[in-house]
Amino acid sequence: MAFPNLGIEIQSFSRVAFSVFGFNVMWYGIFITLGIFLGAVAAFRNTKRNGIANDLFLDFIIIAVPVSLFFTRMYYVVFNMDLYRNNWGSIFAFRSGGMGVYGGIISAFATLFIYSYFKARKTKKGKTTEMAGRIGDTAVFGLLVGQIVGRLGNLVNQEAFGGYTDGLLAMQLRLQNISAEYGRRSIEFLQSVPAETVRAPVTYEMLQNAYTVGGDVVVLVHPTFLYEMLLNTGIFIFLWFFRGHKKFYGELLLIYAAAYAFGRFFIENLRTDQLFLWNTQIPASMFVSCVVFACAVVLITLLRIRAGKSGIKELTPDA
Length: 319
Hints:
It contains 12 helices and 7 strands. By secondary structure, the protein is mostly helical.
């Protein structure tokens, strides 16, 4: 693996980090776990600012994390039902791969409002929407850190990439690592493959521009996982400095939703492993991005107008 236009080359590495009693621990799982831990650290730095007790927020994390992981898998399964129709047990084979981040994000939002509803009723402190806003503005930093670190697993797995590019950030991959069908073919054969027969995750343009390095056939692709890491890093930095200027609780979470959906729409368009809405050629994550972006922008606009009419100039966290 390499980023030739940046002069970066990464030596071969295994997807397996280590084994315990014959059980392989994958790097992907390690990065997800590390992302959850570092995300929690980042989120807890904001509990006091949003007037949230640490134990209340910890309870939310304990519920939201496993729910989100489960629905991250379910998102992938729902849009790949043909793969599981005759083998329902494999739906829960998380280690076999297949996850969709939007499933985790959407389920986290749902968990947030359900949790806030019951907590608001139990504690009799504020409305459900206010509590959800306070928790959401706290959790959003953890969510971003989790996504940023978790995407490193895609680097190790050499997945979640896009089509051909020779741009500055172009990533060079061994074709045999990403395609069993074309991986051991000659350059001459690859460049003679009809465009209409090429199947994902490989594209016709990738095959036409394949070349050899050290005897291996390689292709250049968009590192879309890296683009998403950069997108989320930018959102994190912006929200960290903007948090003192928000007009209502929940604004940070909604800004994240709008910004991530906007960026993800264009990043998803580059990917070669898209999930599609049933019986269509509409990429599911592009469709979801449009819906999320529209809803978030409308809510931000309406809630900022309401905050302005109420004369709210700044927010002071509860003691």
